[in-house]
Every structure is written in C-alpha cells, then in structure tokens.
Amino acid sequence: MSIEKAKNWLRQFGVEDRVREFDTSSATVELAAQAVGCAPARIAKTLSFRTGDGVILIVAAGDTKIDNPKYKARFGCKAKMLAFEEVEPEIGHAVGGVCPFGINEGVTVFLDESLHRFETVFPACGSANSAIELTIPELEKFSGYKAWVDVCKGWRE
User: Fold this and answer.
1) Which residues make beta-bridge pairs with 123?
2) What phi, psi does 60 have (nearest 5°)?
3) Rounded to an integer, what distance in angstroms lies between the CA atom of residue 107 and that of residue 12?
4) pLDDT band at 1, cuts 50/70/90?
5) What are the pLDDT digits (tens) for 67-116?
6) Rounded CA gap, 107 and 122, in Å?
C-alpha cells in the first residue's frame, strides 16, 4: 500500500507518527484543505512530469498552476504531465496520494518557490486520505529534493 511506503520512508526521520489519515478524501487540493483545516494554498501538491531526463515531481503550493514558459526555460521541454495510468507505476504512488516520500528510484524531486510563503505545508502521504504537516526545512530534508525551482504562476498576483 502506498501510504505504507510513505510512512516507511518517513520512519527514518522519526516522523511517521505525524502522518494524518482522514475518514474523507484528501485527493484534491480543495478536499485536502477541508480535511486538514487550512487554506488551499498551504496544501503542497505534488505534480508528476516526464522530461528528457526522466520522470520528475514538482511540489508546489495548492493555489498555483504550472507556468509553461518558466517550465520550458528551466527543464528544456514542454510541460508534459504523466497520464493517469502512468503515475503509479512511474512514481510509486497513485493519483490523489502522490507525494515525494517513498517514491521509485530515479524520480527527481523539485520544490517550487511558491511554498516559501508558508511556515508549514501539508503534502499527501501516499494515499487519497492522508497528509503530514511539515516545515519547509523538513520538506527539504524528507523529500530529498534536488533544487528549488520557480515554475508556477498565480501566487504572486
């Protein structure tokens, strides 16, 4: 089960007991914000893309959208999200629970600048009814991210 993969990953940092599981779905930004009790912007959504270098994840604030020109300038290709049926085999988590914890080997994680606005954010934990509250330094450490990127729009306006 995907949530177990995420919890096992987080166990090495001693925070697996902070994973929250809900009786309702948290599969979308809006549902997650309701389940957690926060503004949608504080949901750290994890988006999956295919690049010339392989599969990547971009963790971004819940109120953002990918800015195609910025994405292309950063990654050298058009933003192409994985198809629904590709997500679980490529990432290791199904749509609705995609997170940067316990992912398949070879998947590179990037964090978007839009997250820097918050002291804490809520990424999913491998299932469509889970989340964990993390500080930005914790998210950096636990995600094993490669770099911060600025590829989203809609949050500065």
Assistant:
1) 44
2) -135, 160
3) 19
4) low
5) 999 999 999 999 999 999 999 999 999 999 999 999 999 999 999 999 99
6) 21
**Residues in CB range of 37: below 8 A, 6 or more apart:** none
pLDDT tens sequence across 26-61? 999 999 999 999 999 999 999 999 999 899 999 999
How far apart are the C-alpha atoms of 11 and 100, rounded to whole Å? Answer: 14
CA 35/CA 149 separation, integer angstroms: 28
CA distance 155 to 138: 22
3-state secondary structure the chain: CHHHHHHHHHHCCCCHHHCEECCCCCCCHHHHHHHHCCCHHHEEEEEEEEECCEEEEEEEECCCEECHHHHHHHHCCCCCECCHHHHHHHHCCCCCCCCCCCCCCCCEEEEEHHHHHCCEEEECCCCCCEECCEEHHHHHHHHCCCEEECCEECCCC
Sheet with 147-149: list strands edge to edge. Answer: 134-135, 120-123, 43-51, 54-61, 108-112, 147-149
Nearest Cα residue to 3 out of 65, 64, 94, 73: 94
Pairing of strands 65-66, 120-123: unpaired
